[in-house]
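Page 37, top half.
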Amino acid sequence: MSIEFMCRKIGMTQYFNEAGECIPVTVLDAQPNRVVQKKSPETDGYAAIQLGFGERKAKRTTKAQAGHFQKANVAPQRFLKESRLSAEELEAYEVGQEIEVGIFEEGQRVDVIGTSKGKGTAGVVKRHNFAVKRRTHGTHEFFRHGGSIGAGAYPGKVIKGMGMAGRMGNARVTAQNVEVVRVDPEKKLLFVRGGVPGHNDGVVRVRAAKRARS
């Protein structure tokens, strides 16, 4: 288990390493995360810490939220997310503590969790890469349809997970085993190889890779 560090996606650029290799990277604004709450197995049934990220104006904070932040003695935070930890890992953190981007290091493999870009309602060709029907042999106004969605007699229903038209994007996506190219603690920036889910200025969470591979 590891914490899921919240960052803001700035955008993509190129980075040249010492060997002169040009690497496509996504730049993440990795401002410190604040520990707002600790949850223990004795009081809550599981071990976790609640992290806060980003500033929120006091006038846009509800009374319940203001009381929650005041109890932790931290300024109002815009985003709150929990990170499950083991009971041993939980002891290393205290309420109000700041967690810096220095917890990551160059060459480390991480998972980046974000919400993909919403693309509205899409058909099966765009959404599931279905093939376009042949425009011959009597095909009429059926070029981009999905075709059969199941048998009539048995099982007599549409199988769960069948590829059909519907909302595309706007879903949780995890990019696994992403390489950390550079960590800049002074400017509070994190550079990861390739693209990550979501739009620019969106919030993503970075954690140590669960299925790390070289």
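Page 37, bottom half:
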Amino acid sequence: MTRLKNPTQTVEIGIIGKYVELHDAYKSIVEALIHAGAENRCKVNVKWIHSETIKTENAAELFLGLNGMIVAPGFGHRGMRGKILAAKYARENNVPYLGICLGMQVAVIEFARNVLKLEDADSSEMNHKTAHPVIDLMEEQKGITDFGGTMRLGAYECKIIDENSKVYKAYNKLTIFERHRHRYEFNENYREQFIKAGMVPTGINPETDLVEIIEIPKHKWFVGVQFHPEYRSTVLNPHPVFVDFIKNSIVEEK
């Protein structure tokens, strides 16, 4: 409580999503940021940025002054272009980035288009005709889409496969359990291309080999998680991913 009431620093965090006019849609994320801020003795100021307002010509202005960026989860293609521009800005400008669920997928699509030069890269959820479905329907879902499919729901095990990774430094353990709510996943067929270009999987489901976490090692802090860490954060137990995200968003005084 003392840490919460007596912050010693302030950070500006942008939350990018298509429901930002309805702040309660991201209430769990905001609460997780408050918890992480308290852990770092830091006040977190949130800047709400509607993804549909982000254009190539105004992105730099919208993101000016942000110490960190979160691309929020969601479904559907609305606002995708703005989310991709947000991931691109964070990657190119070394701004700490946390992509949650769709926010991870957005980072993968942006990297595929602008680094791997796969111009048509997309999620098959948004564009089923894409030549490069870097995000694709899970194999077990493909036969039941006509019936609405089923989501991957609940807690699943994830193995952190690199002890030098940012997420290992956050969790300080190799086995974690996190909650999921999605149907689409990183496409395994592109894994080696991403690794060679500098975006690496650092968290893997041990049973299915599905990629659960990606990051860019050369970036200050660029992490995408397929799960929802915000669901597990509490005042007494701030989620380690949010804590480390805020820690790396704090600007060191010169």
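Margin note: The chain has one domain: 2-127+149-249.
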